[in-house]
Amino acid sequence: xxxxxxxxxxxxxxxxxxxxxxxxxxxxxGVVFLPVLFGVVTYKIDTMIARYNGTLDSAxxxxxxxxxxxxxxxxxxxxxxxxxxxNALAQRLGHLQAQVIRLNALGGRLTRMAGLDPKEFDxxxxxGMGGPExxxxxxxxxxxxxSLKHLDDQVSEKSEQLTALESLLIDRQTQKALTPSGxxxxxxxxSPFGIRADPFTGRLSMHTGVDIAAPLGTVIHAMGDGVIxxxxxxxxxxxxxxxxxxxxxxxxxxxxxQELVKVGDRVSKGQPIGLLGDTGRSTGPHVHxxxxxxxxxVNPISYLETGKADxxxxxxxxxxxxxxxxxxxxxxxxxxx
Length: 337
Hints:
Blueprint: E1 2-5, E2 14-17, H1 20-114, H2 141-178, E3 188-191, E4 194-197, E5 204-207, E6 210-213, E7 219-221, E8 226-234, E9 238-246, E10 249-259, E11 266-267, E12 272-276, E13 286-293, E14 296-298, H3 307-317, H4 327-333
Antiparallel strand pairs: 1-2, 3-6, 4-5, 6-13, 7-12, 8-9, 8-11, 9-10, 10-12, 10-13, 13-14
Helix pairs in contact: 1-2
């Protein structure tokens, strides 16, 4: 085989001759060695690709394992947080239940203190509720927390209201304790409040208190809480004790045989303050009781428990009269100033 090569620039031609052996050699190389070469190259490329793919798969697996571990940790954290929240909610519910129990007890006590109808204000029963059935609402965590907060706010508000009511009732009870009331001794009215014949002169005069007769030495009790502002002899009253109850109230107990308190002492309602006697301007053993409101002497009978009924009984038995008509009659019943 002859091959003639003609370059473009020089224009001179070159002649090459290929023998049959050359052609055969080239054919053998093309048929045998080129496929082997291509196979080796392909194998190398496949091996590199496989290694690359294996590296990628390992990285993906490692990354997925890391993500799974992170998810496990997140789930564990969420579970821990949920348990903590549940414990907190349980504690909160327990606190609210304790508050409700306390409010029920307080409400029952206030009901008794205020003298309300226990059937109408029964704190031991659930309040009445109702209404048509409506579609249910999913109670997710936020709604539960919102409901708990609303309940907490309501409990706090009711607690404040009941505490204020309790303070008001306590003030009322304090006011009641300070206001004079009740009989200082067990006895009978020997001379009422008002116009009467003076037991010593027989002339009509104003009697500014109530005389209560009883055996000599009978213990006299305070008609209310207060402070002793006078204790000792006083003209016309004999031995006298005066109590300032506050809010403009004062009480006086005269003709005592002995005082059991001194000036400045604090006394409580029902506390012994003296012994019934016959001192001062008196015709017999009795205690002269006066009640002053804003320095004005008022009729003590309205401050005595069942005073009017006992006075009516004394009138029917003839042991007292509405107005003494003579010194002798007054002396017989134990009257005084």
